[in-house]
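anyone seen this seq b4? input:
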Amino acid sequence: DEKAYAVVVELPGIEPEDITLEAKDNTLSISGEKKVERRDEDNKHVLERSYGTFCRTIELPDDADIEHIQAASKNGLLTVTIPRKAEEQPKTRKIEINKA
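predicted toks r here
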């Protein structure tokens, strides 16, 4: 919207402490690791889940305010809110006219 950008990432089964979120130069990097749960059972079973590390880098617009980015994780969804910088208003200066 006019005030902020939002990035929503689905990360089911990944705890917030296993996610690294970094902003540098006009990029946002989201990385982490989904750890394998080990079970010591004699029964054989099939796992159809992905495990391992991941990393995504997103280029941010020029008006992104990386100093005030906020993130929240709930129910497997990571929501990153990136505020927009306030639009700079052109400065006006009154110039005095001298009599010649």
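The CA atoms of residues 39 and 46 lie 12 Å apart. The chain has no helices and six strands. kinda curious what u guys think
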